[in-house]
Design a protein that fits this description.
α8 (264-289) crosses α10 (312-323), α10 (312-323) crosses α13 (364-384) and α22 (540-556) runs parallel beside α23. This protein is an alpha/beta fold. Helix content is 49%, strand content 16%. Strands 1, 4, 7, 8, 11, 12, 13, 14, 18 and 19 form a ten-stranded mixed β-sheet that branches. A six-stranded parallel β-sheet has the order 22-21-20-23-24-25, with helices on both faces. Bound molecules: pyridoxal-5'-phosphate.
Length: 803
């Protein structure tokens, strides 16, 4: 039905009439979207089945993640199937714009930011590389909140991506599993062995919804299985309504927070719900193939994305011990050989721990198992480090009334990885140093990546076209071949092409900004963009204070010269994160002032695009000249936004943090703008003190002026920005904003001058960034995971069967 335009049109028309009982003329955009989606799902169904059949013999990986930030799927699926053009042309004949159709799909926003988006990129790479790997997550009824800005303040509206159903999912009620909470543990004897069972539990039914994960130009279709919580058949006789409500709450909302946890019990329920359902389902599948679990780890790897799914480890132990009567020693051997863990942060406030008083009643058997793991672990430490109580206390999994999830993850896995070189080094030398001393062989680095299929082929067809014209198509399947562009870094036709593509994308974004924000921005100005979650460590504050500084200079000095710049922000703040919301307000206050002051003469525009999400990122990133990656060094584990910008030819304005360090390695120092404190310097100040932000206030007039404006009535706001002022001056500026201010100002000036004075050099730098971005394809990352950690192999890369 997709073999040519005519066949597609005929099938599509027939399908609409049959499904909706109306003629094509009367169908809505939504009818058309649903129809096309259903056609695509059917089209891949035989490949989906076939992939699973072939996988039955292969070693598989299951990727467990509390977040999958997928975004829209229609366009990407069409593109991966190689039928985008056929469909686009067929629809055009029917006077339907495929682009418009794509835009009515709601983003599947089952994640907060980088961590969830990484999981989505990994799924795309696994399928595209023909690797046996499936995702397991939660089907939140409401994904990340929808952000509205009113008078500069963030409002949060509940997101409702399922309002018209989700065309990509298949409900599999026959594969539902029952998850127990509460109750107590009884011991009994079975064949002379002491055995445990969980009784008086309250059950919740976990119902899987499967989504196809379609590889690029291959027959492979992997699966993302998302669990939905529903009332169980074994529901209690009393308080049925309360039970029902509490049950459904488990998959009601995604936690809108990257770093802390609230609503402890519910959050813990979500975590156990995800892992227990996944482990049960994985083992069921396994036992259809193999007779027992003794060689499980030879056929399955289970990956835990950050600590949220770490209870998979004791849950798996429980199944081996209680359901399969295995000895502890053997069960532990199989478990540690099965699990692997990725750490995503060095921020200590983000390290999960659970109070025993909450944990134990909710998950009594799991707690017992963790306690036993801890006992045995501490005993092994004691043998190695006799008498070192302090060390053992610091490494314990259960201590001071808390269960430490990261410790459980490290102890229960055979591989622990960080997500960029510098991050892994910090883990080894600081956060996890004691564990590294104990078992150095477990630790390894896997620098993050992004799928070039979404972030280049899909998001930037204009640039894709130019690259194909220049070096052909090889790089589309092998992104490291973008390096073929090296020969064109001085080529004037190619550089002119780059300039044209960038301008085109800036025009598109400018149009959107005019429509959404009513602000006129000049596509000829430098587009300087910072889009990511709002967090103190990411230092949007440094950016906005610098804009205020530029504004002051213009007001005071008529001769102040600066090439026109458009500053673009996009960021959601966690609803309970008051400080982050203040920064959003400050950005808007500065924007209002700057955008409306004739003195500025359009040399600066400040734009905040609301509701940052994957689909918006796809429109913003191709339009960037400058990519702001200015976190306090040592705080950003990797970042992946930085990679998306680089791949789209933006130049990085960044600190030596996370993957910026490796971007620098790839492009060379003359093709990136690096400034500010280094990670060692930040960590030294943190250890030993020696930084006083007040000194910078007193010794730098520009800083003083900007700081004073936060509190002296300059903005005419109700309570102004005392909170920000206090954090920077009274609380000594934890994230070194003032310390890095001058270096940032100077680098920004250098970048502006270069853009103004030597556009050709700028374009060469752009070309170098694109040609070196292949390293940051998640295909490279996934190959490393596959060979070093999971030991899985591709299923003999089928050539696309022409249909
Ligand atoms: C890539 C991405 C992120 C992560 O951005 P960072 O700059 O690495 O923090 C967050 N949100 C969305 C929607 C993304 O696409």
């Amino acid at each position: 039905m997709f073999s040519n335009k005519e066949a597609f049109k005929a099938a599509f028309l027939k399908r609409i009439e049959r499904t909706y009982g109306k003629s094509f003329q009367d169908s809505t955009l939504s009818d058309q979207f649903q129809t096309l989606g259903n056609m695509v799902r059917e089209y891949i169904s035989s490949n989906w089945i076939q992939t699973n059949e072939e996988y039955s013999k292969e070693k598989k990986v299951y990727y467990l993640s509390i977040e999958f930030l997928l975004g829209r799927l229609l366009g990407q699926n069409l593109l991966n199937l190689g039928i985008y053009d056929v469909v686009e042309e067929g629809l055009k004949d029917l006077h339907i714009s495929l682009e418009e159709l794509e835009e009515i799909e709601y983003d599947a926003a089952l994640g907060n930011g980088g961590l969830g988006r990484l999981a989505a990129c990994f799924l795309d790479s696994l399928a595209s590389l023909d690797l046996p790997g499936h995702g397991y997550g939660i089907r939140y009824k409401h994904g990340l909140f929808e952000q509205r800005i009113v008078d500069g303040f963030q409002l949060e509206l509940p997101e409702h991506w399922l309002r018209y159903g989700h065309v990509w999912e298949v409900r599999k009620i026959d594969m539902a599993v029952e998850i127990p909470f509460w109750g107590k543990v009884e011991t009994y004897e079975k064949d002379g062995i002491l055995t445990f069972r969980h009784v008086d539990a309250e059950y919740v039914s976990a119902v899987p919804y499967d989504m196809p994960v379609i590889g690029y130009e291959t027959d492979t279709v992997n699966t993302l299985r998302l669990w939905s919580a529903e009332p169980s058949r074994y529901m209690p006789n009393q308080d049925v309504l309360k039970y029902k409500k509490e049950t459904e709450a488990i998959s009601e909302f995604l936690y809108p927070d990257d770093t802390n946890d609230e609503g402890k019990i519910l959050r813990l329920k979500q975590q156990y719900f995800l892992v227990s359902a996944s482990i049960r389902s994985i083992i069921q599948d396994y036992l259809e193939q193999y007779k027992d679990l003794h060689a499980f780890h030879e056929h399955v790897s289970i990956h835990i994305n950050d600590t949220h799914p770490v209870l998979a480890i004791p849950e798996f132990m429980r199944v081996l011990l209680d359901d399969h009567c295995m000895s502890w020693e053997e069960a532990w051997q199989i478990t540690t050989n099965t699990f692997c863990y990725t750490n995503h942060t060095t921020l200590s406030e983000a390290l999960e721990q659970w109070p025993i008083r909450i944990f134990q009643p909710l998950l009594p058997r799991i707690f017992m198992i963790i306690d036993e793991i801890n006992e045995r672990f501490c005993k092994s430490l004691w043998e190695l480090y006799p008498g070192e109580w302090g060390r053992i206390e610091q490494m314990a999994i259960v201590a001071h009334g808390q269960v430490k999830m990261a410790h459980l993850a490290i102890v229960g896995s055979h591989s622990v990885n960080g997500v960029a070189k510098i991050h892994t080094e910090i883990l080894k030398n600081r956060e996890m140093n004691l564990f590294y001393q104990f078992q150095p062989e477990k630790f390894n680095n896997k620098t993050n990546g992004i799928t070039h299929r979404r972030w280049l082929l899909k998001a930037n067809p204009e640039l894709t076209h130019l690259i194909r014209e220049t070096i052909g198509d090889e790089w589309m399947k092998q992104p490291e071949k973008l390096a073929l562009l090296h020969s064109y870094e001085q080529d004037s036709a190619f550089l002119t092409g780059l300039a044209d593509v960038k301008l085109k994308r800036k025009e598109i974004l400018a149009k959107r900004i005019l429509e959404q924000n009513g602000i006129n921005v000049d596509p000829q100005s430098i587009f300087d963009i910072q889009v990511k979650r709002l967090h103190a460590y990411k230092r949007q504050l440094l950016n906005v204070l610098h804009i205020l500084y530029l504004y002051n200079r213009m007001r005071e000095d008529a001769s102040f010269d600066m090439y026109p710049r458009t500053f673009v922000f996009g960021a959601k703040a966690s609803p309970g994160y008051y400080y982050a919301k203040k920064i959003i307000k400050l950005i808007h206050s500065v924007a209002d002032m700057v955008n409306n002051d004739p003195i500025v003469k359009d040399r600066i525009k400040v734009v905040f695009l609301e509701n940052y999400r994957v689909s918006l990122a796809e429109d913003i990133i191709p339009a960037a000249d400058i990519s702001e990656q200015i976190s306090t060094a040592s705080k950003e584990a990797s970042g992946t936004g930085n990679m998306k910008f680089m791949m789209n030819g933006a130049l990085t304005m960044g600190t030596l943090d996370g993957a910026n360090v490796e971007i620098l390695e790839q492009v060379g120092q003359e093709n990136i703008f690096i400034f500010g404190l280094k990670a060692e310097e930040v960590m030294k100040f943190e250890r030993e003190g020696g930084y006083r932000s007040m000194d910078y206030y007193h010794h730098d007039n520009h800083i003083r002026q900007v700081m004073d404006q936060l509190v002296n009535g300059f903005f005419n706001e109700e309570d102004q920005f005392e909170m920000i002022y206090d954090s920077l001056l009274i609380e000594n500026d934890q994230y070194f904003v003032l310390k890095d201010f001058a270096a940032y100002r100077d680098k920004q000036q250098e970048a502006g001058r270069l853009y103004e004075k030597d556009r050709n050099r700028w374009l060469q730098m752009t070309a170098r960034n694109i040609s070196q971005s292949g390293y940051f394809s998640s295909d490279r990352t996934i190959r490393e995971y596959a060979s070093d950690i999971w030991e899985i192999h591709n299923r003999g890369s089928q050539v696309l069967v022409k249909r």
